[in-house]
Amino acid sequence: xxxxxxxxxxxxKKILLENINLELKPKDLNVIIGPNGAGKxxxxxxxxxxxxIYKGEISFKEIDFTTASINSISKYIAYMAQFNQNSNLTTVxxxxxxxxxxxxFSLKEYDHDMIxxxxxxxxxxxxxxxxxxxxxxxxxxxxxxxxxxxxxxxILLLDEPISHLDPKNQIEMLELIRKKTKxxxxxxxxxxxxxxxxxxxxxxxxxxKNKEILYFENSLNITxxxxxxxxxxxCKLFWQEGHPFLFLGHSHNNNIHNHSHKKENHxx
Length: 268
Ligand SMILES: Nc1ncnc2c1ncn2[C@@H]1O[C@H](COP(=O)(O)OP(=O)(O)O)[C@@H](O)[C@H]1O
Ligand SMILES: [Mg+2]
Hints:
Elements: E1 2-11, E2 14-24, E3 29-33, H1 40-47, E4 55-60, E5 63-64, H2 70-74, E6 77-80, H3 91-97, H4 100-103, H5 109-121, H6 137-150, E7 155-159, H7 167-183, E8 187-191, H8 195-201, E9 204-209, E10 212-218, H9 224-231, E11 235-240, E12 243-248, H10 256-267
Parallel strand pairs: 3-8, 3-9, 6-7, 7-8
Antiparallel strand pairs: 1-2, 1-4, 4-5, 9-10, 11-12
């Protein structure tokens, strides 16, 4: 269990997170949704100890992350940042580095097998020896996601991991994230902007607005009202055969539909 109690984050006298309380379980895929600037990335960074906590507590099992050193918690956590830095590494380098916290500089056969399987699962065969700076944003995202999962963390933190991927790759990566979370008992927390995918793949949804948690709910319990309140816009949500369909800001009175209708008439 990852337990976050009364967490506050403050940087340069500015409050970025206020009174965050969460209890997160292994095997659960938790998805954070919320407007730009709500504090989603800040929450992941606070858990990963990349930024300092102002008040409150984060603990995992009996370990108090608040007082533990970064080194001592790093073996529990894998973190994929929203914006990855440039580097001179190849795909293979990035994957190998992610196994070093277990095996040091000389990777074992087991590590190499894991890397091989990951290359297959994530479909990275075509750019193994390419410098990652020369890859597309989507290709790079797949590599960093693969690298985070290869670390076999207890807590997997992913900040908008699929924002540069095409729709098919997005779904493949979400399927993989979900599968690995269940197989490896990860506590996974990921920020996503695609609400339909968020509802479909998440076990739990964390709604973050203006530094605070608005709702923390099973994805099946999310209502139109909650989403409207989160984004200050109207929302239509319905489920069909286990798939959520979600439209923001649409109403039957606006003329998007009429426009396309008119166009059709013109063409004929
Ligand atoms: N180091 C920082 N110093 C000052 N303000 C920051 C810092 N990091 C983030 N912020 C601000 O905190 C708010 C939340 O940021 P962030 O967590 O990145 O939002 P998002 O929900 O979009 O991921 C934003 O208004 C951002 O400008
Ligand atoms: Mg962010």
